[in-house]
Amino acid sequence: MPVIPVTDVADPRLTDYRGLTDVALRRTLEAERGLYMAEGGKVIARAVAAGHAPRSVLMSPKWVDGIVAVLGNQADTMNLYVAPDDVLEAVTGYQVHRGALAAMHRPALPSVADLVRNARRVVVLEGIVDHTNVGAIFRSVAGIGADAVIVSPTCADPLYRRSVKVSMGTVFQVPWTRAESWPGVLDELREVGFVVAGMALEEAAVPLDEFATRGHERIALVMGTEGDGMTRGALAHTDIPVMIPMAGGVDSLNVAAASAVALWELRVR
Fold first, then answer.
1. Looking at domain 3-105, which CATH architecture does it have?
2. What is the pLDDT of residues 35-77, one digit of tens each?
3. Among 13, 42, 52, 175, who pairs with 47 as Cys (CB 3.0-4.6 Å)?
4. Where are the domains of the chain?
5. Which residues of the chain have pLDDT under 70?
């Protein structure tokens, strides 16, 4: 088992872990290297259980035994870097409270057709840029029981470290893919039998609970970006706008909270 002590912040072997708080930098580097970051023993365990392969692990000394147990036989085939907490913080740019980071090989994404072949409830995310919201939505999808997620080309990466952390690793158990055609993917969903409902504050929007009573077998629920919601272009490719009726002068919920409410109301009974 190649446990490698590291004490030099500039050690080139830690390049994958450098500057994790720089979102723009990580977006470029992780795409170029075909990797993503998993943080903490529970998240790393869920990634490994989902069949994702670690490239290396960086951790503090007290986490070695636990991470080796999580990795099983894979621990013998990769580099396990061990560094003091101050070195971890200097390399990554933040205090690594969960004590361990794994650079994971990014899995290939399925086609939309393969993803939704047997699905009844699909969530589609348009341009949601906050990684916290993306992670929270994936957690709702996993916990309430939707079948899959499709993200638009401009949506934040579900495998970005913050998204994975907020989702508690559920991004690994939820089938998902990124749409190559936008908003054309919504037409693809309609062609295979989905009713495409867009969450939007439209005058003609149908209350969510009323829409749920219509008993549609296959529903694709589209949720738009945090500020402006769905774009007009995407809304034009939906079958119906829907909304969560609100009170107290509040017009809408945060997109992550709205996803939980909507998924519960539209769950397969």
1. 2-Layer Sandwich (3.30)
2. 999 999 999 999 999 999 999 999 999 999 999 999 988 888 8
3. 52
4. 3-105, 112-265
5. 1
Burial class (CB in 10 A: 0-12, 13-18, 19+), 122: buried
pTM of the predicted protein model: 0.92
